[in-house]
Design brief:
Length: 359
Protein backbone atom coordinates (compact mmCIF):
# COMPACT_ATOMS: atom_id res chain seq x y z
CA UNK A 1 0.00 0.00 0.00
CA UNK A 2 1.32 3.43 -0.97
CA UNK A 3 -0.36 6.73 -0.09
CA UNK A 4 0.49 10.28 -1.17
CA UNK A 5 -0.26 13.12 1.28
CA UNK A 6 -0.06 16.71 0.03
CA UNK A 7 0.61 19.70 2.30
CA UNK A 8 1.46 17.43 5.23
CA UNK A 9 2.51 20.29 7.62
CA UNK A 10 -0.87 21.98 7.06
CA UNK A 11 -2.71 18.68 7.52
CA UNK A 12 -0.97 17.99 10.85
CA UNK A 13 -1.10 21.59 12.16
CA UNK A 14 -4.38 21.16 14.06
CA UNK A 15 -3.51 17.89 15.82
CA UNK A 16 0.03 19.09 16.56
CA UNK A 17 -1.24 22.26 18.26
CA UNK A 18 -2.34 20.26 21.31
CA UNK A 19 0.50 17.72 21.46
CA UNK A 20 2.51 18.19 24.69
CA UNK A 21 6.27 18.63 24.50
CA UNK A 22 6.70 15.91 27.13
CA UNK A 23 4.25 13.38 28.47
CA UNK A 24 4.41 10.42 30.89
CA UNK A 25 2.85 8.39 28.08
CA UNK A 26 5.44 8.49 25.31
CA UNK A 27 2.98 7.96 22.48
CA UNK A 28 1.13 11.17 23.43
CA UNK A 29 4.17 13.11 22.21
CA UNK A 30 3.34 12.09 18.64
CA UNK A 31 0.36 12.06 16.28
CA UNK A 32 -1.83 9.04 15.60
CA UNK A 33 -1.82 8.56 11.82
CA UNK A 34 -4.32 6.21 10.18
CA UNK A 35 -4.35 5.24 6.49
CA UNK A 36 -7.07 3.50 4.48
CA UNK A 37 -6.54 1.57 1.20
CA UNK A 38 -8.47 4.21 -0.79
CA UNK A 39 -6.02 6.93 0.30
CA UNK A 40 -8.17 8.40 3.09
CA UNK A 41 -6.09 9.59 6.06
CA UNK A 42 -6.77 10.69 9.60
CA UNK A 43 -4.40 12.36 12.06
CA UNK A 44 -5.14 12.76 15.78
CA UNK A 45 -3.33 14.71 18.49
CA UNK A 46 -4.05 14.80 22.22
CA UNK A 47 -2.99 16.84 25.22
CA UNK A 48 -2.96 13.84 27.51
CA UNK A 49 -4.85 13.25 30.73
CA UNK A 50 -5.36 16.10 33.14
CA UNK A 51 -4.21 18.98 30.96
CA UNK A 52 -7.65 20.64 30.96
CA UNK A 53 -9.51 20.26 34.24
CA UNK A 54 -9.73 16.48 34.59
CA UNK A 55 -10.09 15.46 30.96
CA UNK A 56 -8.34 15.23 27.63
CA UNK A 57 -8.45 17.45 24.56
CA UNK A 58 -8.42 15.56 21.26
CA UNK A 59 -8.02 17.21 17.83
CA UNK A 60 -8.49 15.20 14.64
CA UNK A 61 -7.86 16.12 10.99
CA UNK A 62 -9.51 13.98 8.31
CA UNK A 63 -9.04 13.77 4.55
CA UNK A 64 -11.13 11.59 2.32
CA UNK A 65 -13.87 9.33 3.66
CA UNK A 66 -12.36 6.90 6.17
CA UNK A 67 -14.75 4.04 6.81
CA UNK A 68 -14.27 1.04 9.04
CA UNK A 69 -10.94 -0.01 10.47
CA UNK A 70 -7.82 1.58 9.02
CA UNK A 71 -5.44 -0.58 7.01
CA UNK A 72 -2.48 0.92 8.89
CA UNK A 73 -2.28 2.92 12.11
CA UNK A 74 0.66 4.06 14.21
CA UNK A 75 1.82 7.04 16.28
CA UNK A 76 4.36 9.02 14.25
CA UNK A 77 6.89 11.53 15.55
CA UNK A 78 6.18 15.24 15.17
CA UNK A 79 9.17 15.84 12.87
CA UNK A 80 7.06 14.32 10.08
CA UNK A 81 5.26 17.69 9.92
CA UNK A 82 8.50 19.31 8.69
CA UNK A 83 8.52 17.33 5.45
CA UNK A 84 7.73 19.53 2.46
CA UNK A 85 5.93 18.89 -0.80
CA UNK A 86 3.97 15.69 -1.42
CA UNK A 87 4.92 12.94 1.03
CA UNK A 88 4.69 9.35 -0.17
CA UNK A 89 4.13 6.91 2.68
CA UNK A 90 4.48 3.12 2.39
CA UNK A 91 3.91 0.93 5.47
CA UNK A 92 6.89 -1.42 5.58
CA UNK A 93 5.28 -4.80 5.00
CA UNK A 94 4.87 -6.93 8.11
CA UNK A 95 6.75 -4.41 10.23
CA UNK A 96 3.59 -2.68 11.38
CA UNK A 97 5.36 0.05 13.35
CA UNK A 98 7.58 1.18 10.48
CA UNK A 99 6.78 3.28 7.45
CA UNK A 100 8.88 4.32 4.45
CA UNK A 101 8.53 7.99 3.55
CA UNK A 102 9.71 10.02 0.60
CA UNK A 103 9.36 13.79 0.38
CA UNK A 104 11.07 16.71 -1.30
CA UNK A 105 13.70 16.85 1.46
CA UNK A 106 13.80 13.38 3.01
CA UNK A 107 13.80 9.69 2.19
CA UNK A 108 13.86 7.39 5.19
CA UNK A 109 12.21 4.61 7.15
CA UNK A 110 10.34 6.01 10.15
CA UNK A 111 10.03 3.98 13.33
CA UNK A 112 6.61 4.60 14.90
CA UNK A 113 4.99 3.99 18.28
CA UNK A 114 2.24 1.60 19.33
CA UNK A 115 -1.19 3.27 19.00
CA UNK A 116 -2.97 1.06 21.52
CA UNK A 117 -2.85 3.66 24.34
CA UNK A 118 -4.02 6.53 22.16
CA UNK A 119 -7.47 8.13 22.78
CA UNK A 120 -10.22 7.57 20.25
CA UNK A 121 -10.24 10.15 17.41
CA UNK A 122 -12.57 13.12 17.72
CA UNK A 123 -15.64 12.67 15.53
CA UNK A 124 -18.17 15.47 15.06
CA UNK A 125 -21.65 14.33 16.18
CA UNK A 126 -24.64 14.73 13.93
CA UNK A 127 -26.52 17.99 14.19
CA UNK A 128 -25.09 21.11 15.76
CA UNK A 129 -25.08 24.70 14.68
CA UNK A 130 -22.69 26.49 12.27
CA UNK A 131 -21.38 29.89 13.39
CA UNK A 132 -19.74 32.07 10.74
CA UNK A 133 -17.89 34.63 12.88
CA UNK A 134 -16.96 32.47 15.88
CA UNK A 135 -13.36 31.91 14.74
CA UNK A 136 -12.65 35.65 14.62
CA UNK A 137 -14.18 36.04 18.07
CA UNK A 138 -12.04 33.22 19.50
CA UNK A 139 -8.89 34.92 18.22
CA UNK A 140 -10.01 38.34 19.47
CA UNK A 141 -10.51 37.18 23.06
CA UNK A 142 -7.58 34.74 23.25
CA UNK A 143 -5.06 37.31 24.62
CA UNK A 144 -7.22 37.77 27.73
CA UNK A 145 -7.36 34.09 28.68
CA UNK A 146 -6.00 33.44 32.17
CA UNK A 147 -2.96 31.16 32.48
CA UNK A 148 -3.94 30.02 35.97
CA UNK A 149 -4.49 26.30 35.36
CA UNK A 150 -5.61 25.78 38.95
CA UNK A 151 -8.87 27.53 38.02
CA UNK A 152 -10.06 25.82 34.78
CA UNK A 153 -13.24 27.87 34.70
CA UNK A 154 -11.24 31.07 34.31
CA UNK A 155 -8.52 29.90 31.92
CA UNK A 156 -10.98 29.05 29.16
CA UNK A 157 -13.11 30.97 26.67
CA UNK A 158 -16.75 31.40 27.68
CA UNK A 159 -19.28 30.86 24.88
CA UNK A 160 -22.86 32.09 25.27
CA UNK A 161 -25.68 32.53 22.81
CA UNK A 162 -24.66 36.09 21.92
CA UNK A 163 -21.11 36.56 23.27
CA UNK A 164 -17.62 35.13 23.45
CA UNK A 165 -15.66 36.23 26.52
CA UNK A 166 -12.28 35.64 28.13
CA UNK A 167 -10.91 37.21 31.27
CA UNK A 168 -7.98 37.07 33.66
CA UNK A 169 -7.42 38.97 36.87
CA UNK A 170 -6.57 42.25 35.09
CA UNK A 171 -7.90 41.89 31.53
CA UNK A 172 -11.25 41.29 29.84
CA UNK A 173 -12.07 40.74 26.15
CA UNK A 174 -15.62 40.17 24.96
CA UNK A 175 -17.01 39.98 21.42
CA UNK A 176 -20.70 40.10 20.60
CA UNK A 177 -21.60 37.47 18.01
CA UNK A 178 -23.72 34.40 17.49
CA UNK A 179 -21.85 31.81 19.51
CA UNK A 180 -23.09 28.73 21.33
CA UNK A 181 -26.70 27.55 21.73
CA UNK A 182 -25.73 26.40 25.24
CA UNK A 183 -23.20 28.06 27.58
CA UNK A 184 -19.83 26.30 27.58
CA UNK A 185 -16.19 26.97 28.43
CA UNK A 186 -13.77 26.15 25.61
CA UNK A 187 -10.07 25.43 26.31
CA UNK A 188 -7.73 28.08 24.83
CA UNK A 189 -5.93 25.35 22.85
CA UNK A 190 -8.99 24.99 20.62
CA UNK A 191 -8.41 28.44 19.09
CA UNK A 192 -4.89 27.36 18.11
CA UNK A 193 -6.16 24.11 16.63
CA UNK A 194 -8.67 25.98 14.45
CA UNK A 195 -6.39 28.87 13.44
CA UNK A 196 -6.15 27.63 9.84
CA UNK A 197 -9.87 26.93 9.55
CA UNK A 198 -11.61 28.54 6.58
CA UNK A 199 -15.13 27.17 6.94
CA UNK A 200 -17.65 28.17 9.58
CA UNK A 201 -17.19 26.54 12.97
CA UNK A 202 -19.86 24.01 13.84
CA UNK A 203 -20.74 23.49 17.50
CA UNK A 204 -21.83 19.93 18.09
CA UNK A 205 -24.33 18.94 20.78
CA UNK A 206 -22.79 17.44 23.95
CA UNK A 207 -24.29 14.03 23.31
CA UNK A 208 -22.59 12.37 26.28
CA UNK A 209 -22.94 15.39 28.61
CA UNK A 210 -19.19 15.14 29.23
CA UNK A 211 -17.48 16.31 26.05
CA UNK A 212 -18.01 19.36 23.86
CA UNK A 213 -17.30 19.37 20.12
CA UNK A 214 -16.16 22.07 17.70
CA UNK A 215 -15.41 21.36 14.05
CA UNK A 216 -14.49 23.28 10.92
CA UNK A 217 -13.74 21.69 7.59
CA UNK A 218 -11.41 18.75 8.14
CA UNK A 219 -10.64 19.66 11.81
CA UNK A 220 -12.69 18.25 14.71
CA UNK A 221 -11.99 19.03 18.38
CA UNK A 222 -13.27 17.19 21.45
CA UNK A 223 -12.80 18.65 24.92
CA UNK A 224 -14.22 18.02 28.41
CA UNK A 225 -17.02 20.33 29.45
CA UNK A 226 -16.40 22.52 32.49
CA UNK A 227 -19.28 23.84 34.58
CA UNK A 228 -20.01 27.29 33.04
CA UNK A 229 -21.07 28.63 36.43
CA UNK A 230 -17.39 28.57 37.45
CA UNK A 231 -16.60 31.36 34.97
CA UNK A 232 -16.07 34.75 36.71
CA UNK A 233 -19.15 37.04 36.80
CA UNK A 234 -17.73 39.30 34.13
CA UNK A 235 -21.03 41.05 33.39
CA UNK A 236 -20.88 42.78 36.78
CA UNK A 237 -17.73 44.55 35.54
CA UNK A 238 -19.77 46.09 32.73
CA UNK A 239 -21.75 48.01 35.31
CA UNK A 240 -18.72 50.27 35.74
CA UNK A 241 -18.54 51.06 32.05
CA UNK A 242 -19.54 54.59 31.15
CA UNK A 243 -20.04 55.76 34.72
CA UNK A 244 -18.20 58.96 35.62
CA UNK A 245 -15.29 58.53 33.19
CA UNK A 246 -12.03 60.22 34.16
CA UNK A 247 -11.27 60.77 30.46
CA UNK A 248 -12.45 59.51 27.09
CA UNK A 249 -11.61 59.81 23.41
CA UNK A 250 -12.29 58.27 20.02
CA UNK A 251 -9.39 57.46 17.70
CA UNK A 252 -8.77 55.59 14.49
CA UNK A 253 -8.38 51.94 15.52
CA UNK A 254 -5.81 50.86 12.95
CA UNK A 255 -3.68 53.95 13.68
CA UNK A 256 -3.52 53.14 17.38
CA UNK A 257 -2.84 49.48 16.57
CA UNK A 258 0.17 50.53 14.49
CA UNK A 259 1.39 52.62 17.42
CA UNK A 260 0.93 49.62 19.71
CA UNK A 261 3.06 47.48 17.39
CA UNK A 262 5.81 50.07 17.62
CA UNK A 263 5.29 50.23 21.37
CA UNK A 264 5.95 46.51 21.62
CA UNK A 265 9.47 47.01 20.27
CA UNK A 266 10.04 49.96 22.62
CA UNK A 267 8.95 47.86 25.59
CA UNK A 268 11.81 45.43 25.02
CA UNK A 269 14.38 48.23 25.34
CA UNK A 270 12.97 50.62 27.91
CA UNK A 271 11.36 50.25 31.30
CA UNK A 272 7.75 51.40 30.98
CA UNK A 273 6.88 54.41 33.08
CA UNK A 274 3.49 55.19 31.58
CA UNK A 275 1.07 52.92 29.82
CA UNK A 276 -1.95 54.92 28.76
CA UNK A 277 -2.85 58.59 28.82
CA UNK A 278 -6.13 60.09 27.63
CA UNK A 279 -6.43 63.83 27.97
CA UNK A 280 -9.94 65.19 28.69
CA UNK A 281 -9.64 67.35 25.58
CA UNK A 282 -9.66 64.22 23.45
CA UNK A 283 -5.97 63.60 22.83
CA UNK A 284 -4.78 60.01 23.01
CA UNK A 285 -1.32 58.55 23.39
CA UNK A 286 0.19 55.25 24.41
CA UNK A 287 3.43 55.90 26.23
CA UNK A 288 5.96 53.19 27.00
CA UNK A 289 9.04 55.24 27.75
CA UNK A 290 10.05 58.82 28.51
CA UNK A 291 9.62 59.94 24.90
CA UNK A 292 6.13 58.48 24.57
CA UNK A 293 4.33 57.64 21.35
CA UNK A 294 2.39 60.20 19.34
CA UNK A 295 -1.16 59.51 18.18
CA UNK A 296 -3.54 61.59 16.11
CA UNK A 297 -6.54 63.14 17.88
CA UNK A 298 -8.40 64.41 14.80
CA UNK A 299 -7.02 67.97 15.06
CA UNK A 300 -3.29 67.42 15.22
CA UNK A 301 -0.55 65.37 16.85
CA UNK A 302 -0.23 65.34 20.62
CA UNK A 303 2.26 63.89 23.08
CA UNK A 304 1.52 62.07 26.30
CA UNK A 305 2.33 64.42 29.17
CA UNK A 306 0.49 62.90 32.09
CA UNK A 307 0.60 59.47 33.68
CA UNK A 308 -2.77 58.16 34.76
CA UNK A 309 -2.48 56.54 38.18
CA UNK A 310 1.15 57.61 38.59
CA UNK A 311 2.65 56.64 41.92
CA UNK A 312 -0.02 54.13 42.89
CA UNK A 313 -0.97 51.93 39.95
CA UNK A 314 -0.21 51.27 36.28
CA UNK A 315 -1.74 49.42 33.36
CA UNK A 316 0.31 46.37 32.21
CA UNK A 317 1.84 47.33 28.84
CA UNK A 318 1.50 43.92 27.22
CA UNK A 319 -2.19 43.78 28.06
CA UNK A 320 -2.79 47.28 26.70
CA UNK A 321 -1.06 46.33 23.45
CA UNK A 322 -2.94 43.04 22.96
CA UNK A 323 -6.27 44.69 23.78
CA UNK A 324 -5.67 47.49 21.26
CA UNK A 325 -4.75 44.94 18.58
CA UNK A 326 -7.86 42.83 19.26
CA UNK A 327 -10.08 45.92 19.16
CA UNK A 328 -8.53 47.13 15.89
CA UNK A 329 -9.47 43.83 14.23
CA UNK A 330 -13.14 44.33 15.12
CA UNK A 331 -13.77 47.96 14.20
CA UNK A 332 -12.34 51.03 12.47
CA UNK A 333 -13.14 53.49 15.24
CA UNK A 334 -11.79 52.82 18.73
CA UNK A 335 -13.47 54.40 21.76
CA UNK A 336 -11.38 54.53 24.90
CA UNK A 337 -12.56 55.45 28.39
CA UNK A 338 -10.87 55.54 31.76
CA UNK A 339 -13.21 54.77 34.64
CA UNK A 340 -11.55 54.85 38.05
CA UNK A 341 -8.58 52.48 37.68
CA UNK A 342 -9.99 50.63 34.67
CA UNK A 343 -9.52 51.44 30.99
CA UNK A 344 -12.21 50.44 28.48
CA UNK A 345 -11.75 49.80 24.77
CA UNK A 346 -14.70 49.53 22.41
CA UNK A 347 -14.59 48.96 18.65
CA UNK A 348 -17.35 47.43 16.57
CA UNK A 349 -18.63 44.35 18.38
CA UNK A 350 -15.60 44.23 20.70
CA UNK A 351 -15.34 45.47 24.26
CA UNK A 352 -12.20 45.08 26.35
CA UNK A 353 -10.97 46.22 29.75
CA UNK A 354 -7.57 46.46 31.37
CA UNK A 355 -7.48 47.21 35.08
CA UNK A 356 -4.66 49.01 36.84
CA UNK A 357 -2.40 47.07 39.16
CA UNK A 358 -0.44 48.37 42.13
CA UNK A 359 3.16 49.25 41.50
Amino acid sequence: MKVEITDLPEFLAGPLSVVPGRSPIKSYEGVLLEIWPDGSTRATGTTGIGSWSVGTIVVTATRGSPDGKAAWAAVVSTWLARQVGTVVMSPAGERRLHVDIMSANRSATLTCMDPSDFPAPAVAPDGGEAVDDLLQALHAVAPAVSLDRSRPGMCGIYLERDRVTATSSTQLHSVKCNASPIPMIVPPEIGSALRSAEAAIRIGPPVDRINGHLSSGEITCRFPLVDPSTFPPWRSILDLYGKDPVASAVVQADLLADQADWAATIATRAKPIAILNIEPAGGVAVSLDESGIDAHNGRGWIQAVEIIGSGSACHPPDQIITTVRSAAKCGKSLRIQIVKNMTWFEAGNFVGAVSAISK
